[in-house]
Amino acid sequence: MVDRWKQAAQQHLTPRLFHEVVQAFRAAVTITQGDQEGAEASKFQVTDSAVFNALVTFCVRDLFGCLQKLLFGKTPKDSSRLPQPSSSPLWGKLRLDVKAYLSSVIQLVACVAEATVAAALLQHIGSAVPYFLTFPKQCRMLLKRMVVLWSTGEETVRVLAFLVLIRVCRHQKDTFLSPVLKQMYITYVKNCRFTSPSTLPLIGFMQRTLTELLALDTSVAYQHAFLYIRQLAIHLRSAMTTRRKEAHQSVYSWQFVHCLQLWCRVLSTICPSDALQPVVYPLAQVILGCIKLVPTARFYPLRMHCVRALTLLSEGTGTFIPVLPFILEVFQQVDFNKKPGRMSSKPINFAVILKLSKVNLQEKAYRDGLVEQLYDLTLEYLHSQAHSIAFPELALPAILQLKSFLRECKVANYCRQVRQLLEKVQENADHISSLRQRASFGVTNQQAVDDWEKQTREEGTPLTKYYSQWRKLRDREIQLEISGKERLEDLDFPEIKRRKLGDRKDEDRVEFKDLFDLDSEEDAADFSERGAPRSSGAQQRVEEEDKDEDDEDEDDGSSSGQEVSNSEDGGPDADAELAPRELWRLLAQGPEDELQDLQLSEED
Q1: How many angstroms separate the CA atoms of 155 and 437, rounded?
Q2: Which one of 177, 188, 290, 415 is least enclosed by Cβ atoms within 10 Å?
Q3: Cis peptide leading into 272, omega within 30 of 0?
């Protein structure tokens, strides 16, 4: 029956045929939801999985193309510019069936768990957006489901769900843009409660897509930015005034930090914008207050996140924000020469933590990561100001602090990184100074200063050229950290399994029992005659002879050397003296011997 419907629809789709297909499709979707009563009440019964797959495939792939041809006579080449279905004279006959079909599609998307099937359905929904816009109730149901998929689905599903959202919001900004932004922001905050290397890509995707939606209408973006930045400021004020643990936790949390990062990204992307410029200063003040709330070493990771957000905001909006003091302050507060209390083989990933434990503060990995973070933050901020005509004066505190660090620090690895940074900053300062000396305008001529900085940015500076190369390498390292791969993961180290001493006693006895087995019966007979166990008197005589020979060696080295040479020549005395001694020390076996446990060091 499905094949017959397909052939008839491709030849000429009629309203009656479309009605029958929609009824069958509704019956199939009802089964997926487990609604047996609704399935029995339907005209059609879909019980076979092959029939279900064929019916859904036909509706998703071919049905709407045939419907478009029925409504407008031909299928448009550009699917992004579909005409309004309500403009067709046949729309009155097909309206209810289309509405029922769209509701069933939304229900089917909610039931599908396979990512590939969900992706195919979302592509179908994307092409059917003009039909959804005709029915406001179905459109709201669709947007609600798309927000869920945008925040929780597989990567391809998230992207396709966002494409549906932005397409609907573009067509009807006044109706759907503000509610969708509110729902997406609330969902974003819920998903930012926990942060790990696996969730960072999802959080970054949500930030970028939210920014793109907010950029559709700056007036709506200002309303949301004002409201939510004000909420953040209220939380911060409560933490500063009450000084309670719960209030501090509401500020020093991943949700608060990711919200700050989101609005910094939004303002830096949309600006210059007259509508959003008034919220730049309040946002910067909230971030600075967040840094100053608990300025201890344990919250250095949170400070790093806030400094990066301020750097992004300053560079994107062209607003000067005093970020550098919060970076240089760490050089003064931490004693990098102090010997670490404990060693850690695993580096600290500052990208996924907000607070350090007391144990972390004693580790060498903490100071290694801190120096690396300070290097990154200083370079990123000075790079954002590298084209400024005031760069020599702006970088002077950093130059003085880095020189002071090099004089006091005795750790070679830290000094090498800081010295490299200092050289690049000084080189850029000298470059700006040389260009500034040739300028013919005064400092009061703002337009001339702006033109000079724009030209300097286009030509490039030594620091920007170095930063572009460093950024590529650094991004590669960050991707490895985000993906959870350790730096030594690719190396194939052998696995060492250590055993307890008591557990390996029996195995050692079996392993070394036959270590000195004799090769032939003659050797065995020879050793049994000459290597028989001696009495205690014989053992004492051998020890006395050994002691006497040692004394003679100490008294007369030349005569000892002569005796040794004679023994090496194969004299009879050599066989008489060395053979019993070697047999006693190495190969003597008998009932009086005791087997010692073999002690292996960790190096073995």
Answers
A1: 53
A2: 415
A3: yes
pLDDT tens, position by position, 257-271: 999 999 999 999 998
Q: Tell me the DSSP string of 536-579.
A: HHHHHHHHHHHHHHHHHHHH-HHHHHHHHHHHHTT-HHHHHHHH
Task: Please tell me the distance from the alpha carbon of residue 113 to that of residue 118, in angstroms, as a whole number.
Answer: 7
**How confident is the model over 298-327, as pLDDT tens digits?**
999 999 999 999 999 999 998 999 999 999
Is 239 exposed, middle or buried (CB count within 10 Å of its CB: 0-12, 13-18, 19+)? buried
Taking the C-alpha atoms of residue 151 and residue 145, their distance in angstroms, rounded to an integer, is 10
Give the C-alpha distances (Å, rounded to integers) separating 599 from 386, 505, 602, 603: 64, 10, 10, 12
User: What six digits make up the tokens of 366?
Assistant: 């903490």
What single letter denotes the amino acid at residue 176?
A: F
- State the CB neighbour count (10 A cutoff) for residue 446: 9
Instruction: Spell 245-254 as b/e; 16+ CB within 10 A means b.
Output: eebbeebbbb
CB contact at 8 A, 28 and 55: yes
Positive or negative: CA dihedral 179, 281, 332, 400: positive
DSSP result, 327-363: HHHHHHH--TTSPPSB--SSPP-GGG-S---HHHHTB
Contacts of residue 317, Cβ cutoff 8 Å, sequence gap at least 6: 267, 268, 271, 272, 277, 280
Give me the helix-helix angle, 115-127 and 136-152, nearest 10°: 140
User: The tokens of 513 are what?
Assistant: 């029992």
In this prediction, residue 517 carries a pLDDT of 47
Lowest mean pLDDT among 83-87, 208-212, 491-495: 491-495
How many other CB atoms are found less than 10 A from the CB of residue 50? 8
* Residue 567 binned pLDDT confidence (cut-offs 50, 70, 90): very low
Closest C-alpha among 10, 89, 25 to residue 57: 25
Q: Where are the alpha helices (DSSP H) in 59-134?
A: 64-72, 91-111, 115-127, 129-134
Average confidence score pLDDT of the chain: 79
243 Rama class: left (phi>0) / alpha (psi -120 to 50) / beta: left
Contacts of 593 (CB under 8 A, 6+ apart): 533
Alpha helices (runs of H) in 13-90, residue ranges in sequence order: 15-32, 36-41, 49-58, 64-72
Q: Which among 69, 144, 51, 56 has a CA at the least distance from the CA of 101?
A: 56
Does residue 140 sit in helix, strand or coil?
A: helix
